[in-house]
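Q: Got a minute? One more chain.
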Amino acid sequence: MLELLLPPPVDPLWDLTEAYGADARPERLNLVLGVYRDDTGTTPVMAAVREAELRLAERSASKEYRGLSGNTAFNRAMLAMVLGGAGGAADRAVAVQTVAGSGALRLLADLVCRTRPGATVWISDPAYVNHRPILEAAGLAVRTYRWADAEGRSDTAGLLQDLAQAQRDDVVLLQGCCHNPTGVDPSAQAWDELAGLAARNGWVPFVDLAYHGLGDGLEADLAATRLLAERVPEMLVAVSCSKNFGLYSDRTGCAIVLGASRASLRHVETALQNAARTLYSMPPEHGAAVVAAVLEDDGLRSLWRAELDGMRARIEANRTGLAEQLAALGRPAEAAVLARQKGMFSMLPLTAPQMLRLRSRYAVYGTTAGRINIAGLPADRIACVARGVAGVLGEDGA
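A: Always. Here it is, folded:
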């Protein structure tokens, strides 16, 4: 049987991570995976998370099965955080815990395949590297829409022009904030126009929320999702707690479905449960219990928000510092592009061959598309990365 297995494609991010691990140069710098790191290169456990874990350990609750929807307190907390609590869109929404944001994307993709056979799902170009594989694995057709222009700005005209072609039964996957990989987000006016387009043409927004709190602040980063929820009858939301709670390996996420009314949701949770049952049965408890404990306690929630704001400030300082260094090295145009971006990632103005030279000559690892994890950049290495970027640009006379 195994002799018949053809060579499968490798995951580009993990392939680069393995190459980094095999690199013997002590100065090598891993800016590939989207993981927050402090200036020591460590991914810290947030103080609010650690305190919640201590409280959970003292309680020593049973580890019996939670059920296919996971931790219900976590699900309630996610609805309140994302949609603003009772009295609004949350009253016509249902949530189930998932295996992180990727698990939420897959469960919701399965729901689309079941309820809208033949639907096309539109994704941005470029998109998060796992969007297309997840959607196609669920049996869905995928098309792309424009996202950013050649100057690294939001291509609002191209975005709206492309999505005007989306049909009533189609689904449009939108990153709610801090777009991965570009770091480019639409303006508030553009989000308003997108919401109007969805309402008029009848396509369903499918929002991927993985970086809320790391762009302009938690409430600001959720504003586009809440706007869409107010304007459209149906919406899907995949939520990750990996980045803003630092729960990367605990695989904590949530799938949210909004309907035109509470009655329209009567079969949704069961459908999501059935999909989960065939994929992984039920999600792990620990991370969800931690998030629920943090969000249900005023003190822990305040501590978490302060820590999240501190992470966001450090990311902004890294990006500003890199832009300033590039400008000082005679690259003001490239610096201006970087300065406009937000969130964990930045797109360097480098081609694939230039990114390879950045890796081979300066030991800086990013994706061949130019994406680097600005949240993983130590402050004392900013100047070195700037010199590398300016160096490879200079080699080509750019």
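A: The mean pLDDT is 94.
Q: Perfect, thanks.
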